[in-house]
Amino acid sequence: MDNYQATATDSESSENLRQDKHFHLQKAVNKHTNHLAENCKKFLMEEIEDIKQPVFWRAVMAEFLGTAFLVCFAVAAGMSDESSSPNGLLFPCIESGIFITIIIGTLGHISGGHVNPAVSLGFAIVGEISWIRCILYTLSQMLGAIVGAAIIRTVAPSSMYRSFGVVGPGLGVSDVHAMIMELLITFLLLFGILAAVDKGRKDSIGSVPLHIGLIVSLNMFAAVS
């Protein structure tokens, strides 16, 4: 009888211990869930607050215009008449770098002058811009690129279309090699931009727009060739 009572007591203690562990585990899960919900709510409120500001939409429009003009002039720099020799690498590479310098100097105080979805994504990842701003920047840049290409196609004679600014892997270059090169030059671009605008810098690199424009030209010379 005593052994039976001892066994029953042990079973009851084990059950109480199991329930106690389950209670504390559930309490911890609820605490973390509530904390996550509060953070998500705070994040969404900050995102919504961002798009309510008039300067937000002015920045989105600036990205649209900047990308439209960039694509328009970059494509134009590489076009040539069928009866003449192609412009080659020199014009597009130098023109793109110069135009990026002008765009950043002109629109930098409004939107940052990203004119590139990769740049906007990089700034969102490091917390310099909100994610909703990144998404709308990207959409405006894509639309701007389409409009820019449409403008130059409208004003340029058909004899100058050729490949119309379309680029692809060179002779003997595989898709994998081309992708690796794109990753490298995109990394260099973002690394150079984020380093140039780093708020913790104590030194001066001179003109930030010129710094970024030179990176763009360097990348194009390295990749297009």
What does this protein structure show overall?
This protein is an all-alpha fold. The chain folds into 2 domains: 1-52; 57-224, Glycerol uptake facilitator protein, CATH 1.20.1080. 73% of the residues lie in helices and 0% in strands. It has helices at 2-51, 54-77, 90-107, 117-125, 131-155, 175-196, 208-224. It is elongated and about 90 Å long. The N and C termini lie far apart (92 Å).
Order of helices and strands: HHHHHHH
- Dominant shape: elongated
Range of strand content: under 5%
- What structural category arises from helix and sheet content? mainly alpha
CATH class annotation of the largest domain:
Mainly Alpha
SS summary, helix count: 7
Compute the number of strand runs: 0
CATH architecture field of the largest domain: Up-down Bundle
Give the tally of structural domains: 2
Query: Biggest sheet: strands, sense, closure?
Result: none
Alpha-carbon Rg, integer = 28 Å
How far apart the termini lie comes to 92 Å
The low-confidence runs, each spanning 5 or more residues with pLDDT under 50, are: none
What value does the average pLDDT take?
80
Quaternary organization: single chain
CATH H-level superfamily of the largest domain? Glycerol uptake facilitator protein
